[in-house]
Amino acid sequence: MSDKKRFSIGGFEFETHYEYRAAQEDVKKIECINEELDIQDPEVALRLYNDIRDGIITFNSPIGAQYTEHVADIVANKSAGLLDDREIIEEAATKAKSSRRLGLVFVAMAVVLIGVYAAVEIKDVYETRKIAAQIQNREDNTQNTNISQNNVNIDNDNDDIDSVEDSNGGDVSSNSAAANEITEDLIVSPWDKNYAADEREILPDMIDLYSQNSDFVGILEIVDTDINYPVMQTPNDPEYYLRRDFYGETSTAGTLFVDYRCDIVNPTTNTIIYGHNMRSGTMFGGLKRYLDYDYYQSHKTITFKTLYEEQEYEVVGVGLSAVGYDDDDSYKYYNFIDAVTGSELQEFLDNIQSLSVYDETIDISSTDKILTLSTCNSYTEDGRMFVVAKRVK
């Protein structure tokens, strides 16, 4: 009997965690479709089937394939009157299988989720507006209002309406904590090794994913959360995975990706990873939970297993920002990649301290390597959220 770990959803079993995650995302995608569309309407079913057929909507698991068959079954049985699409209907009829029962299950799930989503949506909007007012008040009472991040990171079109709250019911106090003082003139880290480009060997358990896609650079996991995804990097096309999955196929959720200026072989002072804030909670949709202080305190460990080594980080800060533009003078923290001098690091620390959600000093010193996770957040128009961590192993 095999000792290999298996994952299951309903009657489907998956041998790898990656296949299991793909199935989870397909289930959530199906739930959203059934929530938004009346797929029993022949014209709606036909349009949906066309979108799936043309790759506008994609599924990456057997669950998605079976749902596609269910849609095809509806098209075949209910769309006979749509003569202009006779060829497509006949194709659907050929592919359709007896998947009506599965469809009913998903419809029932969608009915339950409609109520859940509505309640969460109302609460999130209320809390978001409340915190937006508090953030604005804090800005009005400080000399440093340069909160910014360029929109090169993540397209805001698919953001969630995010809850911005802490354990005190959403109250964010005035941030009076001072940033650490950097006294060193030159920055030197014990993690710096200066490897040649071809000197480092790929870890054995990274080889399979790398062989499937050479843009793959590692796996990001936040311990005790749902965030456990492959991470990509494309220096010659920085936003390639903004709307593509691991395989390069069109995907609204995209894939986590490293800033093109960062170095995986010889890590820069700051490694920035971008991801969409998906309403389903996938990708960086779960980062908003760090706006709850208790959650922030209890989820401090991040592992970033690159092609060459397993790195462990401790979360030391959470910040909120608004989009800045190339032609303004505001400090853009996303531009902090590599520090050579203490003054460069000090400028970064001073600014992220001013953006911090929590009134406590962000504990980063001159020898630390930094990991920044960046996503969108609707606490204000074109808002952004970032989680900062320092390397500990």
**CATH superfamily grouping of the largest domain:** Sortase
Helix content: 25-40%
Top-tier CATH class of the largest domain = Mainly Beta
Q: Count up the domains.
A: 2
Which fold name fills CATH's third level, the topology of the largest domain? Sortase, Chain: A
Average pLDDT value?
78
**Rounded to an integer, what's the Rg over CA atoms?**
23 Å
Active site: 276, 376
GO molecular function: hydrolase activity
Transmembrane segments: 102-120
Organism: Pseudobutyrivibrio ruminis
Folded structure, characterized:
The chain folds into two domains: 1-141, no CATH class; 147-391, Sortase, Chain: A, CATH 2.40.260.10. Helices cover 32% and strands 17% of the residues. It contains eight helices and eleven strands. The strands form two sheets. It has an eight-stranded mixed β-barrel with strand order 4-5-6-7-10-11-9-8. A hairpin with a 6-residue loop joins strand 10 (370-376) and strand 11. Helix 1 packs parallel to helix 3 and helix 1 crosses helix 5. The longest helix has 41 residues, at 100-140. Residues 142-155 have a biased composition (Low complexity). Residues 142-175 are annotated as: Disordered. GO terms for molecular function: hydrolase activity.
